[in-house]
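Notes from the 1:1 (GR / supervisor)

We went over the backlog. Supervisor wanted to see one worked example end to end before approving the batch request, so GR pasted a single chain during the call. The sequence is below; no edits were made to it. Supervisor asked that the structure be written out right there so they could see what the output format looks like.
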Amino acid sequence: MMASHGWAVLLPNPRGSDGQGTQFTEDNFQDWGGQDFQDEMDGADYVVAQGIANKDKMVAGGWSYGGFMTSWTVTHTDRFKAAVIGAGVTDLTSMATITDIAPSFLDGYFGDFASHHDMYREHSPVTYINNVKTPVLVVHGEADDRVPMSQGTEFYNSLHFMGREAQMIRFPREPHVFAERDHQEALLTHVLDWFSSHVQ
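Structure output shown during the call:
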């Protein structure tokens, strides 16, 4: 959708993803926002160096773990002109207790919650919310049990209370992956409009 409107799109495969062997998949153990973030910034640097992207007109966005990465990105760099956080994990501490795949999901990434509480906080984007300068659109489904809407609400409200540029759009009835066609189309429209309004 973005490419059809003239955008160059980078879809990175950072450490912690699959397709590159077991070690590559496990490289973000206890390191969300570490090597994976560096991989994505290296990708952004590369497309700028190749003349594919204009460093003054870049935006960022992602869904689920990509939403985590986007919320981590805007709390750790202001290089992007706008961002969209879709169904994003923003607070690992609360996520560990409310997701429908607790406790095994985050335990597998960080270790048991009781013994690694500080690590959960240190790798939560909301911990660094005061650093955000990027305009942020938060999108979430109200029926999301995987990454409950409170994750997006917490991040949005924190930005709103600090007077940062932010909007949140909630979609009724939608789980973690949107099912209703009208909502799927509306989501794409909102994403395109948000990015286009911040990059001429």
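Supervisor's comment: The chain has one domain: 54-198.
Batch request approved.
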